[in-house]
Specification:
Layout (H helix, E strand, L loop, with lengths): L34 H5 L18 H9 L2
Length: 68
């Protein structure tokens, strides 16, 4: 499933979308959400800290600590 997300300003009760060619001739689902609902939503912060620990070489880690 392909998805396209865009924010548009409603003008005279209408919204105009220009879709990429990959959507042409296909049935699409359109979901409309008001912007007020989206403003209060906070994105979850993702931390990558420690994710490479499984690949660490303990002997080299000791050398790195001594070099600081």
């Amino acid at each position: 499933m392909k998805a396209l997300r865009t924010l548009k300003q409603v003008q005279n009760g209408q919204v105009h979308l220009h879709l990429p060619k990959q959507f042409w001739g296909q049935q699409v689902e359109i979901i409309v959400l008001s912007g007020a609902q989206q403003e209060g939503r906070e994105e979850a912060k993702v931390s990558l800290r420690g994710c490479l620990r499984q690949y660490a070489n303990p002997s080299l880690a000791a050398q790195e600590e001594g070099g600081r």
